[in-house]
Design brief:
The protein has 449 residues and is α/β, with parallel strands linked by helices. The protein has two domains: 187 residues, FAD/NAD(P)-binding domain (3-Layer(bba) Sandwich), CATH 3.50.50; 198 residues, D-Amino Acid Oxidase, Chain A, domain 2 (2-Layer Sandwich). Helix content is 26%, strand content 24%. The protein has ten helices and 19 strands. The strands form three sheets. Strands 5-6-7-4-14-15-16-13-17 form a nine-stranded mixed beta sheet, with helices on both faces. Strands 1, 2, 9, 10, 11, 12, 18 and 19 form an eight-stranded mixed beta sheet that branches. Helix 1 links the parallel strand 1 and strand 2. Helix 2 crosses helix 3. The longest helix has 20 residues. 46% of the residues are buried.
């Protein structure tokens, strides 16, 4: 057993932990920082996300829109500084429907989100101009959303979409990037400033007098710490328990599939495409009989909720569908439903009929856990034990929130000026009677796509 001392120990080397190390070391010039994770950097959920970002967030209030706008501002700063080393684009998110009743729902939601600061909503009919997304880069002028009610415009831009489509909502300050390239660039800059990484597991946290004193690792080594940052993704509850702190979060398993678009079904660069309507899967009579004969597969015959979606990654397509959101205790590596890939592929055919060419083919399935609070907002700030901080409950938006979250955590830790939204992300918000009252009518799926 060896003993050492660090000023800041960050437990967790996913996107949140790496971004925190970057902001502390590079932007605040802190020294003697150690990242600790039982896996190599970016090995767990951070490595398997869809890598997308957006500023399109519902209320209550404008907290999440301002938070995400700040995070995107920081991502663009990093892209400018690095020569866009992590391939940030602003292709946008495109929501599609064949249901006329969806249009007023979109109009109301878009007006509300626009009023919160996400940008203007523009309507397009007939020959009114609509600016398509550029395949690469991030045009900083693109903001708000375009509502297209002319199917001819939609089909002209995206000829692979079903001819049943009647409307499209193209949200513009959105896109995706490479998680691993971003994390690698951030970690490299942090390491140049002296940040160290150690592959080991935190198994015990020593506290005295209500303050963090040291951390014991699985190797037996003990590290004295000045400040401790808990950035452990789906392990948040178990690590917080080492501090005897209860964190009100749950975990949901979310998968995605990756497959090669060998038939060039998606014939041109496209935004993130999302089908908003419920879907019944297209099975053959023999398949329907087989699923119906087994109570465990009868759900495959049900109408499934809208939201099946895909994006491009080179010659591959990444696709996902959040039709099952039950909470569960995390295990790693996770286990996915054996029907997930085929379900997603068949669901995609409602939006892109030619996806039927990929039915029954193999696709790679991976994914990770959304660690969530009941209102689907993050936890960023001090914990009840002095010297301990949390950056977590980042749900499915860890990459897009990473920079604003890490900036905020660093401000807490260095006693710097805090943004006015900081109290809305602290753990002690749950002690506020007004916040508890707000929670009574809060949708747990708020902001989830």
């Amino acid at each position: 057993m060896t003993k050492s001392k660090v000023d800041v120990l960050i437990c967790g080397a996913g996107m949140a932990g790496i971004a925190t190390a970057y902001h502390l070391a590079v932007r605040h010039n802190l020294k003697n920082i150690l990242l600790v994770d039982e896996y190599p950097p970016m090995s767990v959920t951070s490595s398997v996300g869809t890598e997308a970002y957006r500023n399109w967030w519902p209320g209550p209030g404008d907290t999440m829109v301002r938070f995400m706008n700040r995070s995107i501002d920081l991502l663009e700063e990093l892209a400018d500084e690095s020569g866009n080393a992590f391939q940030l684009n602003r292709r946008g998110y495109v929501f599609l429907t064949a249901n006329s009743q969806q249009i007023p729902v979109w109009q109301k939601a878009a007006a509300e989100v626009s009023a919160l600061g996400a940008g203007a909503v523009r309507g397009h009919l007939g020959d009114q101009p609509y600016n398509a997304s550029q395949p690469e880069g991030y045009d900083k002028s693109l903001n708000g959303a375009d509502l297209i009610l002319d199917p001819a415009i939609i089909r002209r831009e995206f000829p692979f979409i079903t001819d049943k489509v009647i409307a499209m909502l193209h949200v513009r300050r959105c896109g995706w990037l490479s998680n691993k390239l971003l994390a690698g660039w951030l970690l490299k800059q942090a390491q140049r400033k002296g940040v160290q990484f150690r592959q080991d597991k935190v198994v015990k946290i020593e506290t005295t007098g209500g303050r963090v004193r040291s951390v014991r690792l699985g190797s037996g080594d003990v590290i004295q710490v000045g400040q401790l940052v808990v950035a452990v993704g789906h392990s948040l509850r178990s690590v917080a328990a080492l501090l005897e702190v209860e964190i009100p979060v749950v975990n949901e398993l979310h998968g995605k599939i990756t497959f090669k678009d060998s038939q060039k079904v998606i014939s041109r660069p496209a935004p993130f495409m999302i089908w908003s309507d419920p879907v019944r899967l297209p099975w053959t009579d023999a398949e329907r009989a087989r699923w119906d004969s087994n109570p465990q597969t009868q759900w495959l015959l049900d109408e499934l909720p809208g939201g099946v979606q895909f994006r491009q990654r080179g010659e591959d397509l990444l696709a996902l569908w959040t039709y099952d959101i039950h909470t569960q205790e995390p295990v790693w590596p996770p286990r996915f439903d054996p029907h997930y890939a085929d379900t997603v592929l068949r669901g995609l055919s409602a939006m892109v009929p030619a996806m039927s060419t990929y039915f029954n083919q193999s696709a790679y399935v991976d994914g990770g856990y959304y660690c969530k609070t009941r209102e689907n907002r993050p936890l960023i700030g001090p914990l009840p034990v002095k010297g301990a901080y949390v950056i977590g409950a980042l749900s499915g938006y860890g990459v897009m929130a990473s920079q604003a979250a890490a900036e905020l955590l660093a401000a807490h830790l260095t006693s710097s000026q805090l943004p006015d939204y900081a109290p809305m992300f602290r753990l002690d918000r749950y002690d506020d009677p007004a916040y508890q009252k707000l929670l009574q009518n809060w949708d747990a799926l708020s902001g989830q796509i």
